[in-house]
Amino acid sequence: MKKEEKKEFVKLPDSELYIMQTIWNTATPVGTGKIVELITKSKDWSRSTIQVLLTRLEERGFIKMEKKGRLKYYSPIIKEEDYLSGETKSFLKHFYNNSYKKLIASLVQDTRLTDEDYEELLTIIQNAKESE
């Protein structure tokens, strides 16, 4: 029996991540026209640029495309929570050498944290410990 291969995390470029966030934040499947409409509200991207990015995301296995007549509709394959978890692990490895203690120390030493922020962090940690 083969040992299950662990899929390597694929970090998206900012432009593709922006497209993914748009898809995650809409009811899916979502048409190309709606994606273009939503993105061009805040980005000066052409329709063809957005279509290229959609194609890349499809090729990478992040979204699936379904044709209905002449129209294309997109749905996420990768859940937002799964992607964010991978980003967090990558960040932790890259910047904190996989040390949660160093990450948390960095957070709590930030002078901009309020008493409420500290309490919330403590609650998160305590809840995580209790759920083990």
UniProtKB/TrEMBL annotation:
<dbReference type="GO" id="GO:0003677">
    <property type="term" value="F:DNA binding"/>
</dbReference>
<keyword id="KW-0238">DNA-binding</keyword>
<comment type="similarity">
    <text>Belongs to the BlaI transcriptional regulatory family.</text>
</comment>
<dbReference type="InterPro" id="IPR036388">
    <property type="entry name" value="WH-like_DNA-bd_sf"/>
</dbReference>
<keyword id="KW-0805">Transcription regulation</keyword>
<keyword id="KW-0804">Transcription</keyword>
<dbReference type="InterPro" id="IPR036390">
    <property type="entry name" value="WH_DNA-bd_sf"/>
</dbReference>
<dbReference type="Pfam" id="PF03965">
    <property type="entry name" value="Penicillinase_R"/>
</dbReference>
<dbReference type="GO" id="GO:0045892">
    <property type="term" value="P:negative regulation of DNA-templated transcription"/>
</dbReference>
<dbReference type="InterPro" id="IPR005650">
    <property type="entry name" value="BlaI_family"/>
</dbReference>
<protein>
    <submittedName>
        <fullName>Penicillinase repressor</fullName>
    </submittedName>
</protein>
